Amino acid sequence: MEDKNKEALARQYILGKLSEEEATRLEEDYFASDDTFEEMEVAEDEIIDAYVRDELSSEDSKLVKENLLTSSRISRRVGFAKILAAKASRKPVSQAEESSPAASHEQQKPVPNVWSWKDVFWPASVWQRAAFSALAIVIAVGTVSLIIDWLRVRKESNRLSASTAALESKNRDLIAENNQRALETQRLAEELKTQKAENAILNEQIERTLNKPSSAVPVISILLSISGSRTLDNEKVVKLPAEPTILQLRIPLEEVKYDRYLVTITSDERPVSAPRELKASGKMLTLRLSSTRFVRGDYIVTVSGVTPSGQAIEIEDYTLRII
Amino acid sequence: MSIPAIIIRGPMTHSPDSSPNDGGTDDPFASTPADSTKPTSVLTERAFHKFLATLNPDREEAGRKYEALRTRLVRFFEWRHCSFPDSRADETLDRVARKIDKGQVISNLLPYLLTVAHNVKKEVWKEDKRRRALENEVVNNTRSRNLEPNLESDEPDHRLICFDRCLESLPADNRKLILSYYQEDGGAKIDWRKQLAEQMGIELNALRIRAHRIRKTLEQCIGLCLAQFAGTKG
Question: How confident is the model at residue B49 (pLDDT cuts 50, 70, 90)?
């Protein structure tokens, strides 16, 4: 059969428009020949496709409805053909169905659009569902974990902020306290300095008063030596008198090398009085101090020779203990 | 291919019985009166195997031929507008198998088969005509409502899902071809397909066949996919 003849014949046969004789001949052909049978199937495709696209004449369309759609297989093929037509023409499936003759003549369920949230989020395949469920669980667990971590970090951050604020406050308090103490120390130092100055003035006044010839103030003469001190009454240790007294320190010199000598008395490296410049009388230096200058403790008496240029050269240290 | 050992047909209330007690006639043109109430007899395993042996001595090849014959018979009954085409095809094959089992030698199987099929077809037409006469408008309404009965049996979502899935499973070239082939409609369709055939360097008829085969594969895939949904629906 010519191709075009075959096509036309097949279509006529399927629609039921051939004579019985022609139909029987065609049947013998397609039962015997695989190629002819395939041609018949192609013709069926094209009839169904034309029916779906409303390309058949009204007579042929009626023949399809009455004769072919009673077959469940062909009905199913019509449903498939609608979807294929829509997909191929990139129309929504519902639009393609509205234009089909079946939809225009019958009440049918509307076919939804191709895209479906259900299809996206809940696929049909079991393994895809399992994979999607596992992914959802991982995402959920991850999200919960992130939230917990965020809460923990926030709490920690708040705690650190509070701690920092407390430390800053304490620091400010300590600085203020320190400043106050420094001021206090400065005040006390100034007070002490003033006091010392006053004491020195008072001691000098006392010494002047005590040194007046008419004065009946007792004098304790202390002869110093390198290894200790001795008083005329008691060696090494000098008892501090209760009443103001003149302590007369007598410092012996091994040799008189200098015209002038400088004598300083210190206790714990602090000067008891201003350095005194003395002249030797024979081999002895004499220094008179008010007892009020002294408190109980150990004292060092340093004797230095003063050169003509004014330079002081240490000669000897003498120790003195006041009890 | 697995071949059923015994083919059992239930009572065919809409199909006439090919009674085994027909006197051993070998004349396939002798059709028995329609009797929808009489159940058909079961095809025995022996009869079935005898029939397969008639098709081909090799069991595998015989099975393939059997399936090919059955498919053609189903189409025959569909294209001849008979109800229940699958059952009619089975009935036709059973009748032939029973004849062979009784000892009839059939020199040319295909024409004999076709003749039996025609007999069955005539019986079905008579039966359908009688039924239509009895049921009248009710039958017509049923038939008209059944215009696309099986479209309602598969959920639209499932069809779309299966279509997309199966389309995706096609090799890229085939997917592109099938969508291109059905891209146009109306008058532009023929020209478009000619153009497509030229681009591919093949005849238009070869393109038709190729598109048909891809479409067939797609439909088979969709059928399996929908069966899975039906199975999971339970």
Answer: confident
Q: Which residues pair with A313 in a beta bridge?
A: A305
| Of the partner residues A32, A85, A112, the one whose CB lies closest to the CB of residue B156 | A112
Alpha helices, H only, chain B? 45-55, 59-79, 85-101, 109-135, 137-145, 156-169, 172-181, 188-200, 204-233
Tokens 């004449």 belong to A57
- Of the candidates A68, A117, A51, A113, the one whose C-alpha atom is nearest the C-alpha of residue A86 is A113
Tokens read off for A261: 């000598």
- One-letter amino acid identity for A112? P
List pLDDT tens digits, range A220-247.
Answer: 888 888 654 454 443 457 888 888 888 9
- Judge: A114–B151 Cβ closer than 8 Å, yes or no: no
Question: Above 50 in pLDDT, residue A313?
Answer: yes
Predicted TM-score (pTM) of the model is 0.52
Nearest alpha carbon to residue A261 among A224, A306, A310: A306
Checking ipTM against 0.85, whether it exceeds it is: no
Q: Which residues pair with A312 in a beta bridge?
A: A306
- Which residues in chain A are contacts of B72 at CB distance < 8 A? 30-31, 37
| Tokens 């001849």 -> residue | B80
Taking the C-alpha atoms of residue A141 and residue A161, their distance in angstroms, rounded to an integer, is 30
- What integer best gives the mean pLDDT of chain B? 78
pLDDT tens, position by position, A77-86: 999 999 999 9
**Which residues in chain B have their CB less than 8 angstroms from residue A44's CB?**
79
Cα-based angle B151, B152, B158 (whole degrees, multiple of 5) = 80
User: What angle (nearest 5°) sits at the alpha carbon of residue A317, between those of residues A313 and A320?
Assistant: 145
Sequence length of chain A is 323
Counted across chains A and B, CB pairs separated by less than 8 A come out at 147
CB atoms within 10 A of CB A40: 25
